[in-house]
Write a structure and sequence with these properties.
By secondary structure, this protein is an alpha/beta fold. It folds into two domains: 131 residues, Up-down Bundle (Four Helix Bundle (Hemerythrin (Met), subunit A)); 201 residues, Translation initiation factor eif-2b, domain 2 (Rossmann fold, 3-Layer(aba) Sandwich). The protein has eleven helices and 16 strands. Strands 6-5-4-7-10-15-16 form a seven-stranded mixed β-sheet. A four-stranded mixed β-sheet has the order 11-8-9-14, covered by helices on one side. A hairpin with a 2-residue loop joins strand 15 and strand 16. Bound molecules: 5-S-methyl-1-O-phosphono-5-thio-D-ribulose. The site of 5-S-methyl-1-O-phosphono-5-thio-D-ribulose (MRU) has 17 residues, from helix 2 and strand 9.
């Protein structure tokens, strides 16, 4: 299966509208920083690496849109566009990583004309996308050896092709193990409230004919207690310098359960998701999303009007619960500050 989560067509960024999967498969077009930022905020595109790719195109397409302006106006408006992108979602560090990468390329253009800057930024966005797939393939190769033939692997949220430029991080590890000839089956947590597991992970696995069983989030402990889970592999939105892992809300619960049942808990983590400026998970900004996501789904409302709602979209799993970080540079077992720093050495 070759899902193109994002693609560049006819001068526009096209992104699969992940809000309506699996019922509908459609691309929406984007041609400015503002529109891409809105696509990220509304979760048309989601998943840390995919958000990074979208932001890179948002920056490039903004430069293309502004390229006829005089240099000073071009610079002021492009800087404003980058600020709009940076405000779209707070937790996935790939967003800020991609914006910083585009800013660096812009700086390197020096006094070049706006049209030249725009061209250079567009080339860089293409490279961010292509590089993401190469990185996922490398993580897949390192991670696949950790899974035994016949392994039943639980995952939470969607860290698949849809969360990246292609192949996936956590699901990339599973795909690579299957490609290597192993029989792997997946247990997909539904992932309340946005249902990335039910709507996206299950869809990806069904498309690819990798056996998948969907469970609600509160069933994971029962399955683990009955010996039905051999390993957990999840993705991440931001890893702190000490190895603490922010990922979709509910991941922490899964990690605690995995430790209780002696099940390895792996995190597929491209280096672009490691934030060395943040000492520990306590400093990771956690997005709080709209109460409507918890009160019901689409037109169906099940909670009493007037009830108080909390909707933190991510949680932090302490490094001590992580069996290993699977990166494109290899697997870091029992991650800590020194081992994370060594990845960049
Ligand atoms: O809110 P989302 O859907 O953007 O959250 C996505 C996740 O939490 C993923 O697990 C994470 O971004 C890793 S994706 C390879």
């Amino acid at each position: 299966m070759n899902v193109e989560t994002l693609r560049y067509r006819n001068g526009k960024l096209e992104m699969i509208d992940q809000r309506v999967l699996p019922a509908h498969f459609e691309y929406l077009p984007y041609d400015s920083a503002q529109s891409v930022a809105e696509g990220i905020r509304a979760m048309v595109v989601r998943g840390a690496p995919a958000i990074g790719c979208a932001a890179a195109y948002g920056a490039a397409l903004e430069a293309v849109r502004l390229q006829a302006l005089p240099c000073a106006e071009f610079a002021a408006e492009l800087a404003q566009g980058l600020a709009v992108l940076a405000a779209s979602r707070p937790t996935a560090v790939n967003l800020f990583w991609a914006i910083e990468r585009m800013r660096r390329v812009w700086r390197e253009c020096g006094a070049a004309a706006p049209a030249e800057v725009a061209q250079r930024l567009l080339e860089e966005a293409h490279e961010v996308l292509a590089e993401d797939i190469r990185i996922n393939r490398a993580m897949g190769a390192h991670g696949a050896v950790l899974l035994a033939d016949g392994a039943r692997v639980l995952t939470h949220c969607n860290a698949g092709a849809l969360a990246t430029a292609g192949w996936g991080t956590a699901l990339g590890v599973i795909r690579s193990a299957v490609e290597a000839g192993k029989k792997i089956s997946v247990i997909s947590d539904e992932t309340r409230p946005f249902l990335q597991g039910a709507r996206l992970t299950a869809w990806e696995m069904v498309q690819e004919k990798i056996p998948v069983t969907l469970i609600t989030d509160n069933m994971a402990g029962h399955l683990m207690a009955h010996g039905e889970v051999d390993a957990v592999v999840v993705g991440t939105d931001r890893v702190a310098a000490n190895g603490d892992v922010a990922n979709k809300i509910g991941t922490y619960m899964v990690a605690v359960l995995a430790r209780r049942h002696n099940i390895p808990f792996y995190v597929a983590c491209p280096l672009s998701t490691i934030d060395r400026n943040i000492a520990s998970g306590a400093e990771i900004p956690i997005e709080e999303r709209d109460a409507a996501e918890v009160k019901g789904f689409r037109d169906c409302q099940w909670a009493a009007p007037g009830v108080n709602i909390r909707n933190p979209a991510f949680d932090v799993t302490p490094a001590e619960l992580v069996t290993g970080l699977i990166t494109e540079k290899g697997v870091v077992l029992q991650p800590d500050r020194a081992k994370v720093a060594a990845l960049f050495g």
